[in-house]
Amino acid sequence: MLTLAEEILLLALDEETGTIVDLPNYQTNAMLVAAVLMDLALQNRIDTDVQNLQVISQEPTRNPILDKILSLLPVPGQTQSIRTLLDRLSEQGEDIRELALCQLIEKRILKQENRRLLWVFKTRRYPMIDNREIKEVEGRLHDLITGDDLPDPRDVVLISLVNICGLFDQILSPREWRRSQARIAQLSKMDLIGQQLSKSIQEIQRAMAMSSLPG
After folding, report:
1. Rounded to the nearest 5 degrees, what angle is found at the Cα of 80, between the Cα atoms of 77 and 86?
2. How far apart are CA 47 and CA 20, in angstroms?
3. pTM (2 decimals)?
4. Neighbours of 152 (CB within 10 A)
5. How confident is the model at residue 39, as a pLDDT?
6. Three-state DSSP class for 19?
7. What is d(CA 181, CA 206) in angstroms, rounded to the nearest whole number?
8. Which residue has better confidence, 192 or 67?
9. Could you give all domains of the chain from N- to C-terminal order, each with its CATH number?
10. Which of the pair, 29 or 180, is modelled with greater confidence?
């Protein structure tokens, strides 16, 4: 099974160009950290309430992405604000992204191509080798959003993260998107980590908007 970080990167991949959708750095990094935290919760390494997170086991997961973040969390018995952790760990987002892409390459889902733009600037692309995984993820999310079934906790997180990143336009038609906004919002509220991520991003966006106003 793919990690949530791997699934998010696949959903953010433009299959025609082999490039990842361009998002603000903080948003991308915090989103990937949130994905890892939820995978750790699903593997019973951490527990969360509305605001706080606590480690309940430091046993390695044998996944380099998850174990990297697990090693940076508070020791068992200590609690810390989810918002604080997202802010502190967001600097790990680039490493998570690279590890996730490497794992997708190792699984022969993507391949890496290095090119030069105008013979000077290096560019990196990730063409799809096997699109079965992405089609499965997109199909699963499409059916959950347009249907009435209750998603499992893992898909609740994926829905929340996809919504935060604005990636549903790659899964739903414009008409489906308009009809499904209320359901997406409702399902996203079930993800506690995603709620804190959304609030953090909104606060940063407001602060940036205020700083750009004429003095």
Report:
1. 135
2. 31
3. 0.82
4. 11
5. 92
6. strand
7. 23
8. 67
9. 4-198 (1.10.3630.10)
10. 180
